[in-house]
Design a protein that fits this description.
By secondary structure, the protein is an alpha/beta fold. 30% of the residues lie in helices and 19% in strands. The protein is built from eight helices and nine strands. Helix 3 crosses helix 4.
Length: 232
């Protein structure tokens, strides 16, 4: 049976966007993986009802020591987490070894996107006596908004097992394409500091299909995989 596991990259979104997402999910029997970039007052609720991972941003430094410290700070927010996905999927063989050797509680790296692939796999190998396990995922909203042929209005299963990744900002605005997203990004206030009163309400897309349309279609009609790791 074809099923979908849903994940989210929080990407420094403000609490009102996280609340919007949580309010939607409350009506469905589903467990998702949230990858955290920062603290939020909804952390405990998410940890209780879903899975929590870390989403470090390595783009601002090439120093391994600084990158490890970035991970360490996030793990202090979510101690014991087993999941990691790097922001912008920035990862290399040396860095992933250092991460898994320094933080043995981390068991799975999700930093591989194979867009529209039919296959989801869990690949493990030993490197310098450290076991490294990586899991790919096969759809993401921030790629689909560039995909001019993507149909937001219908459910798609690319394979028997699927992992689809969303961002709260795209669900909130119902982003329909990259041009729409560029307009959203013009907000002069940085995303993490925004309040609901800071946004341009006219940019919330309620008139055409977009990311939220696809997300809601999945929630209402798709078959869910609530812990895909056990099935790989």
């Amino acid at each position: 049976m074809k099923k979908i596991q849903i994940t989210f990259d929080l990407d420094w979104c403000p609490d009102f966007m996280i609340k919007n997402l949580i309010d939607i999910l409350k009506d469905y029997d589903i467990k998702c993986i949230f990858f955290f970039t920062h603290k939020t007052k909804y952390l405990n609720f998410i940890k209780k009802n879903h899975y929590a991972g870390v989403h470090p941003n390595f783009l601002k430094t090439h120093s391994i020591n600084k990158q490890i410290n970035i991970v360490r700070k996030l793990i202090k927010i979510i101690p014991g987490t087993r999941y990691i996905r790097s922001h912008a999927l920035s990862m290399n063989s040396n860095l992933i070894y250092e991460i898994f050797s320094n933080f043995p509680n981390l068991k799975y790296d999700f930093s591989i996107l194979t867009y529209k692939s039919k296959f989801i796999t869990k690949s493990s190998y030993d490197f310098l006596k450290t076991k490294i396990t990586r899991v790919n995922y096969n759809w993401e909203d921030s790629i689909a908004i560039h995909d001019k042929k993507f149909n937001w209005s219908s459910i798609k299963y690319f394979g028997e097992k699927n992992i689809y990744n969303f961002h709260p900002i795209h669900i909130f605005y119902n982003t329909k394409n990259f041009e729409h997203y560029l307009k959203i990004k013009k907000n002069k206030k940085i995303l993490s500091k925004q309040k609901i009163t800071d946004i341009d309400q006219s940019l919330i897309n309620n008139n055409s299909n977009g990311v939220r349309t696809f997300f809601m279609k999945i929630l209402r009609k798709a078959k869910f995989e609530n812990n895909i790791i056990k099935k790989l």
